[in-house]
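Exam review. A common question shows you a sequence with its structure tokens and asks you to describe the fold in words. Practice with the pair below. Do the first one on your own.
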Amino acid sequence: MNIFTEQTSLYGSDRSSPIPLPAYDDNGEKLHVKDVFDFEEMLENYTIELEIRNYSENTVKTYSSIIRSFIDYLSQEKDVYDGRRFLATFRKYIRDLKKDKNVAQNYIYLNTVVCKKFLEFNDIYFLDDIQNPKRTKSLPKSLNEKEVRDLIDAVEITDEDSTLKKKAKIRDKVILELLYSTGLRISELVKLHKRDIDFDERTIRVRGKGEKDRIVLFDEHTKELITNYIETQNPDSEYLFINKNGRKLTPRYVQMMIKDYGKKAGIKKKVTPHVLRHSFATHLLKNGVDIRVIQQLLGHSSLSTTQIYTNVDMDTIKTVYDNARE
């Protein structure tokens, strides 16, 4: 079944473009849309707009890459000189993505939405007749309490470690403890400043999505770890987590670090910062914490988002069911 539903425009392709199409060169030949519109400048302006709207660095990078890929594809296609042919080219592009690259359905959805918004920003509505594909709603994975502990315990500091290695391992352990005890996003973690931490109250002020601030909590054990960790680090750095050169860590480093410790711990599941975030929410829910409290700690504007993150694992469901039937 085709993921798109086409409708016939009553106004023709010119209605969807700020420039009458098709356009012609001096010899009366139809111009390719890439020669009519300056897509390079349009992309640059759109990227600036996203940054002004406080979209995250990763989001801007992803959107730019998606748009760039389609522009490159469009430029290689022949006879794309009006809205109808532009639409047909985009549908072919999506088909090729699914066929040749075997990408996930959610990536098809993202490509469609991003390209439509990019064009609409530039007053081009060639893709108005395309409905957004459905997204798959797979449940986030989580670790059980033992797997979380095994993951953190996989960070072993030995006497054989160099001073630099010990510092790195202390930092890594704090990162794992903090991600699990606070439910922080990876993008929030790497941007933490030391001044964001209130040790007396055991709270951290976090700048989350949409530049919204929230307060997260940490326990006494994590407090002790953070305190000891800071004593081993460069006092001049404003960031909480830094590399050996004194620069803040990248999300990529943290992702790879967690993956490596997951393997060392013998955990067969995929282990990522997001999995730890979901584990944090799931374990709070299992221990009776109200879902609205979890929503606030996670920084979700919608309770429905929190409900997706906090699906209780099947073992817990079976236990509750069996106890109720006894």
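Now try the second one, then compare your answer with the model answer below.
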Amino acid sequence: MKKIILISLLVLTAQVKAEDVLQKLQTIMGIEPSVEINLGAAMLGLLSGMTSEEKQVSEVMKNLTEITVRVYNLDDEDFKGDLNQVKSFINATAGEMKALGMQQLATIREDDSTVYIMAEMNNDTMQGLSVMALDDDSELVVIKIGGQIMMKDLAGLMSRFDVDLSDIDM
């Protein structure tokens, strides 16, 4: 019973922390995102059923509990934030995720781009995936996917959409 309570508290803490991260990001940005997507388990279940012809997509979606996407245009005239503060936020958040036990699957650090792909792993399944991408100092994309993602399903899906990760350091 103590293990169940401890696990529940850890899950709750992780969920609150994710909400805190998005709220902190919103404060730093000072502008509304140009794209905001919030899909919960019910909507994802509905979409999974609608994609039944696309078996690979349906297989991945049926076990998801959430998809959250935020896109901020940094070259928008309304953005008055500090780009260095945004970069520091991304690096610090990735560090915090690693400290919480998430695996850093990929990192890109270039003059004009910073990308982190972080995963919460449990044996052969991914329990969550987070992507933070600052591109050309003009756009910030933050994606959080929650739920069980089987690696075999993800590999098939990436193949289906011709995703090539060969040039990313992993």
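Model answer, second protein: The two ends are 38 Å apart (CA to CA). Helices lie at 2-29, 41-50, 55-61, 83-99, 151-160. Full marks require stating both points clearly.
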